[in-house]
Amino acid sequence: MIDVEVAFARPDRQEIISLQVEEGTTAVEAVKRSGITAVFPEIDPEKDDMGIFGKVIKNPSAHELRDGDRVEIYRPLKIDPKQARLNRAKKKA
């Protein structure tokens, strides 16, 4: 068994759930086992982007976790970061 964490954050709330899983467990499996979808129903483990300590995982359903990993579930962007910077620059001008 290995110790991992599953994390998700919204502007109003964040949650980090610690759990033990078998070696060879994938990121998607850990998210499902953590029960975090009961706290945040908007999470879709099959579709949402995920990462380990800020590094994006290209294929979460195949990425095997290691002891101490923290799986981070990412929310979709509401606006392109470049566009957001442009909008802020226009407001200052």
Automatic annotation (TrEMBL):
InterPro entries referenced in this protein's UniProt entry, alphabetically: Mopterin_synth/thiamin_S_b, RnfH, RnfH_sf
Domain of life: Bacteria
Transmembrane segments: none
Pfam families (alphabetical): Ub-RnfH
SUPFAM superfamilies, A to Z: MoaD/ThiS (SSF54285)
UniProt xrefs under PANTHER family: UPF0125 PROTEIN RATB
Family: Belongs to the UPF0125 (RnfH) family.
Name of the protein described by the UniProt record: UPF0125 protein QPM17_10905
Record organism: Marinobacter azerbaijanicus
